[in-house]
Amino acid sequence: MRWKSLLVIHMAVCFCSLIFLTEAKAVTNQWEYILLDSPVSFQYLTFIDANNLAGGTSGTSMYGGNIYLYTDGAWSPKVYSKANISKIRFFNTQVGFATGGAESFGNTLMYLGKTADGGKTWNDISANLKSSVGSTADMPLYGLSVVSSSTIFVATSEQVYGSSNGGDTWNQKGDILIQNPDLTLNRDLQFPTALDGYVSSQNYLFRTRYGGSSWEKLTPPWNHNLGKDLAMLKFIDANNGWALVVYDYVSPPPEKYGSYLYKTMDGGQNWSIVYQWEGDKGEPYPTESLYVKSSNEIWVGGGLEEIWHSVDSGLIWAMENQGSQNIAIWGFQMVGFESVPRAIASSETQGGTSIAGYYKYNSAACTYSITPSNQSFTASGGTGSVNVTGGDNCVWTATSNVAWITITSGSSGIGNGAVDFSVSVNTNTSTRTGTMSIAGETFTVTQEALSTGCSTWNDVIVRYNIYVSGQGTWSDVIACYNQYAL
Fold first, then answer.
1. Are the beta carbons of 378 and 360 closer than 8 angstroms?
2. Residue 124 predicted with pLDDT over 70
C-alpha cells in the first residue's frame, strides 16, 4: 500500500549518519494517553487552557445535556438537563459559547449558552435567538463558530444565524434551505473571518463572502451518493481549506477502503487531491478528524487511536500513534503555548460519542545523550555509547547499513541503561551539517554526504535527508531521484 511504502521511506531517511560526533541530547517524541477521570463521558470536549477544560454531555433522553468544568484539578457540573450539548467553544479563557439540540417524535429542544468567567457560570440566551428571529418553537442547534467575543454564528440542521453583539440579538443569515437539495446541513459550520463562512451538507458546500447575507452553493469533492463522505472540513483563511473524505467500495472485489485529503485555494471552487490512503478492510487509514496548523503542518486521526502527521503540506505522512482499541481520534486542539495539538479520543456508544481522555505529545518522556563528546570518527571507525534515561518507555534500537554509515549495536536499551555502537565511514565524501536519529529522536550533529552521484537508492535518501535538515532543496531530491530512475 502507498502509505506503507512512504512510512518505510520516512523511517529510513530519519536514520541519518555522523562523522564528527559531538555530545548531543534529545528527548522522545511520543503520544501519551491521559484519562480524564471525569464522572461522565462527554459528547463534546474543549480545552480552555492547558489545565482547564469544559465538557458537554448527551443522553438517551432529550434532556441529557450537561456542561462540566475541570478546574483546580477537579470536575464540577455547571449546567443541568438541557438539550444534548453539540458544541462548546471559547474565544479566550473567559468568553465562551455552547450549543445544544435534541429532536424526538416531533418534539424539539435547544440550548444556547454563554459564559464570561471561564465556564464557572453560564447564561441561557436561547430566548434571545428565538425572539430575534420570531420563533416560538425551539430550534435545535448543531453548529457553532466563534469569530470574536461579539461575533458568533450558529446553525440548525437547515439555516445559519448570526449575532454581532455577543448573543443579545440575532439574524437569520440568508436562506440556505431553499437552495440545498440535501435539505439538511452537516455540523461543519466555520467562519475563518467575520465575512467568509462555510457550511457543508452531504453532497454540497455552501459559501458566503458577505457575513451570511447570501450563500453560494458549490460542488465539493465529497458525495454521499457515491460513497464519499466528508469526515471533516477545515479552512484556515477565506480561501485555503482542506477536506478529509472517507470512502469505501466493494465492486469489483476485493473490498477496498480509504481516505482522500483534498485542498482548495480558491474558497472551495476547485479542489485537488493532496494524498490518498487506500487499503484492505482492517488496515489503518484516517477516518475521523483533521487539523491544519499551517499550510505545511497537518494532522489527521483514525479509528484505532491513529495519529497521522505531515510537515510538507500532506505529501508524506508518518503514523505517530496507533493502538488496538476501537477508540477514535475524535479531534485536535492547540492548547496554550504548546507546539503540538492535543488529540481528543472517543469511542462510539449507543448514546453517541463517548469522550473519556486525550493524547498529549510528551516531548520530555525520555532523554538520550551521546558520548564521548567532540569525538571524530575516521575511516578506521570508532566507538561510543548512547545513554538512555527516563523510564520504561525509553527504547533505543540500532540499525545497520544506513546510507554511507554503518551503525551496529551489541544490545538494545529499554529503560535506563547504555547501548554501545560503532561507526564506520566512507572517506569519499564532503562534510555537511545535518541530523542523526535514534528510535525517531533527532540529534543535531555534523555528518557527511555522499558524492554528487545519484546512482543508488541510498543516494536519493541522502538528498532527502539533506533537504529535511535545511541544507538542500526539494528540487535536489527530485533531480537525484530522476537520475537514479534512469
1. no
2. yes
**Burial degree of 237 (CB within 10 A; 0-12, 13-18, 19+):** exposed
Burial class (CB in 10 A: 0-12, 13-18, 19+), 463: buried
CA 87, chain centre distance (Å): 18
Whether the pLDDT of residue 36 is over 60: the answer is yes
What pLDDT digit, counting tens, does each position of 168-216 carry? 999 999 999 999 999 999 989 999 999 999 999 999 999 999 999 999 9
CA distance 245 to 177: 23
Confidence of residue 463 (pLDDT cuts 50, 70, 90): confident
CA distance 34 to 40: 15
185 exposed, middle or buried (CB, 10 Å; 0-12, 13-18, 19+)? buried
Nine-digit cell at 389? Answer: 534515561
pTM of the prediction? 0.71
Where do the structural domains in the chain lie, given as residue ranges? 2-28+365-448, 31-362
CA R_g for the chain: 26
d(CA 434, CA 182): 53
Cα–Cα distance, 449 to 432 (Å, whole number): 6
Are 401 and 385 spatial neighbours (Cβ–Cβ below 8 Å)? no
Burial of 91 (0-12, 13-18, 19+ CB in 10 A): middle
Please tell me the predicted confidence (pLDDT) of residue 363.
Answer: 61
Give mean pLDDT, residues 128-143. 96
CA distances for 227 relative to 112, 206, 224, 230, 232, angstroms: 34, 20, 5, 10, 15
Alpha-carbon torsion, ordered 90, 310, 273, 282, to 10 deg = -90
Which CATH architecture describes the domain 31-362? Answer: 7 Propeller (2.130)
302-329 per-position pLDDT tens digit: 988 999 999 999 999 988 888 877 889 9
| Residue 455 grid cell | 546512482
